[in-house]
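Researcher: We're reviewing a set of sequences before deciding which ones to prioritize for further study. For each one, I'd like a predicted 3D structure that I can look through quickly. This is MD-2-related lipid-recognition domain-containing protein. If possible, include the structure in token form so it fits the rest of the review sheet.
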Amino acid sequence: MDTAALHFKLALLALSLLFLPSLQATYFQYCDTEANYVAKVSGIDISPNPVVRGKPATFNISASTGKAISGGKAVIDVYYFGVHIHQEIHPLCEETSCPIAVGNFVLSHNQVLPGFTPPGSYTLRMNLFGDGDSITCISFGFKIVLGTSGSSVSNI
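Model: Here's the predicted structure for MD-2-related lipid-recognition domain-containing protein, in token form for your review sheet.
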């Protein structure tokens, strides 16, 4: 292999590594794998990822529904190393536009975690309800790190 080809491949590899964090998908699982939820989740985007304590974070959940949804609530439970530490309940129409028409939609939750939030691995469980029935229920992990005064993030 000639030197120019090797340099090109190394440059391409370095460039792809720069974009790797933005290509990482957040793994999720349904709370009940046997359930036939009205809304099917297709992906989760957390920004920034990892979450920096004391800074704004956005959780975007992409989903689709085969049935129109007029409203409901989102119940969000947070676990730290498997221990339930927090619960929030929000009107569904504050997290997405209502009514939700048949097709694709995005649920967006913004949060600023307090500066004293311990860094580490967390699990978020989100259960959406409409008319008393569960629309969907998922859980996924995310990390919280210490923020620094600059633009870099320190992983702990």
